[in-house]
Amino acid sequence: MEKSLLWKVEGDYFEACNCDSICPCIILADPDQGDCRLVIGWHVANGHLGSTNLDGLNVVAIFHVIGNMVKSKWKAAIYLDERANKTQSEALGKIFSGQIGGFPAVIASFVGEVLGMKSTRIEFVAEGKKRRLTVPRILEVEAESVSGGKADQESKVTNPPLYASPGFDPVIARSTKYTYHDHNLEWDNSGKNAFHSKFSYAP
Questions:
Q1: Distances in whole angstroms, Cα of residue 66 to Cα of each of 39, 73, 97, 147, 163
Q2: Is 60 left (phi over 0), alpha (psi -120 to 50) or beta?
Q3: Model-level pTM greater than 0.70?
């Protein structure tokens, strides 16, 4: 696979962290607890790298950041959907590690240490206001959207500076469960901030 290959991935985005709602990191302020313990899950509804089809596959990334997110180097770990064949797994790894540009490359520019990348079972469920993300024996996240003042409208953050990604206006949510343990990192951040949104990335 070469950088010149065209690619695009789009679908559902879900994140949770250890900040109280709403996370100050998205407006470039310091995290509530002094560090950020962030998980991001992506469900690729439609995607490809060149002729490699990525429809229906999932990716999870864990980030640990001490201090302000734009002033510090992040630790990162990536989990790829075990249902992907070798070519698909390589494509997902290249895209979501930022090796071939687009918004994932913006995220990668903050990473100072990659703890690992591996294939595993990933469950990503989006049902109405609820989201669930699971990596067996490693990660469990459940969250629900915060009710807005108008019952028929979701509460959102519009054009946050940390996420310079077109059309990314995340719905404000709150986790009911968020536990992680792997790579000598372990935490329980249940009851804290979460966001979900659609996403679309391309070079």
A1: 15, 8, 20, 31, 19
A2: beta
A3: yes
